């Protein structure tokens, strides 16, 4: 007998209690934001399967929200390609192939329960395609202000030793500055795709005790950009990314705990 049964709770009571706990996790987002987050997480984790039709009346009662709030939340998920509505069928979950997986919120929701190994691997593949080319472009396009932003990120990285949250922030600032230095608006937008997954990867790596210093590998990229050396900038970034992959593999193999 579980605790709910021992308290005389019905199945509906237990679902409502679970829903209230879920909503409480996103208390700072308001009722609208909370509703979006809870439904999205259920879909992305498979609790609500692809192709399933949503029971709006049951969701409204369980989450204790107005029908207007529920519909507004579903509009957000519709815009992200996650749900859709049809006459006679109602509101349903679209196939994963239709989801906007490059949306920042969708990526964040996938990491909500911790690091997803497959998603981290996919992120590393995306970075391996984008960032060496970005470093090459930056070496020919970066302004003095761009280089100063990269230098500031390096300085923050050096000062963040032993402070995981500061190390994550500094690394994100570095990669954001790198994309900005390409002066390509589409590449700059890739920050939305990478930042959540990169932050999660960084929390894994920087959250462990390590004597590793990330500054030299990042400085090699900045020095090449400063010198206008396209080949060196691209090579330095490839080496930095290869090291990032090794860091994650060490954690997975248990070596990061030694």
Write the layout of secondary structure elements.
Elements: H1 3-6, H2 11-24, H3 30-44, H4 56-63, H5 67-79, E1 83-86, E2 90-93, H6 104-110, H7 117-141, H8 144-159, H9 164-180, H10 185-206, H11 215-227, H12 230-253
Describe this structure in words.
The radius of gyration is 22 Å and the shape is elongated. The longest helix is centred in the middle third of the chain and has 25 residues, at 117-141. The chain has 12 helices and 2 strands; from the N terminus they run H-H-H-H-H-E-E-H-H-H-H-H-H-H. 69% of the residues lie in helices and 3% in strands. It is mainly alpha-helical and 258 residues long. A two-stranded antiparallel ribbon has the order 1-2. A hairpin with a 3-residue loop joins strand 1 and strand 2. Helix 7 packs antiparallel against helix 12 and helix 11 runs antiparallel to helix 12. It folds into 2 domains: 11-104, Orthogonal Bundle (Arc Repressor Mutant, subunit A), CATH 1.10.10.10; 115-253, GntR ligand-binding domain-like (Four Helix Bundle (Hemerythrin (Met), subunit A)). Residues 1-9 have low confidence and may be disordered. The protein has helices at residues 3-6, 11-24, 30-44, 56-63, 67-79, 104-110, 117-141, 144-159, 164-180, 185-206, 215-227, 230-253, and strands spanning 83-86, 90-93.
Question: Key features?
Answer:
DNA binding, 12 helices, Arc Repressor Mutant, subunit A, 3% strand, mainly alpha, GntR_C, 258 residues, disordered N terminus, 2 domains, elongated, DNA-binding transcriptional regulator, FadR family, Four Helix Bundle (Hemerythrin (Met), subunit A), two-stranded antiparallel sheet
């Amino acid at each position: 007998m579980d605790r709910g049964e021992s308290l005389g709770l019905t199945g509906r009571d237990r679902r409502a209690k679970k829903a209230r706990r879920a909503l409480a996790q996103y208390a700072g987002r308001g009722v609208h934001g909370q509703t979006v987050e809870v439904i999205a997480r259920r879909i992305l984790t498979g609790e609500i399967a692809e192709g399933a039709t949503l029971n709006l009346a049951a969701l409204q009662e369980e989450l204790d929200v107005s029908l207007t709030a529920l519909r507004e939340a579903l509009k957000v998920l519709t815009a992200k390609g996650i749900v859709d509505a049809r006459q006679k069928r109602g509101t349903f979950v679209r196939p994963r192939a239709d989801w906007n997986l490059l949306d920042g919120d969708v990526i964040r929701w996938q990491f909500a329960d911790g690091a997803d190994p497959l998603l981290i691997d996919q992120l590393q593949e995306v970075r391996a395609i984008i960032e060496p080319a970005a470093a090459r472009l930056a070496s020919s396009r970066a302004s003095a202000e761009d280089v100063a932003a990269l230098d500031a990120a390096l300085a923050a990285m050096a000062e963040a030793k032993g402070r995981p949250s500061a190390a994550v922030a500094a690394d994100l600032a570095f990669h954001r500055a790198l994309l900005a230095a390409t002066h390509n608006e589409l590449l700059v937008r890739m920050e939305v795709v990478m930042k959540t997954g990169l932050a999660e990867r960084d929390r894994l790596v920087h959250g462990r005790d390590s004597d590793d210093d990330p500054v030299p590998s990042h400085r090699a990229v900045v020095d090449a950009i400063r010198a206008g050396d396209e080949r060196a900038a691209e090579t330095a970034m490839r080496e930095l990314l290869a090291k990032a992959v090794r860091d994650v593999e060490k954690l997975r193999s248990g070596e990061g705990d030694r």
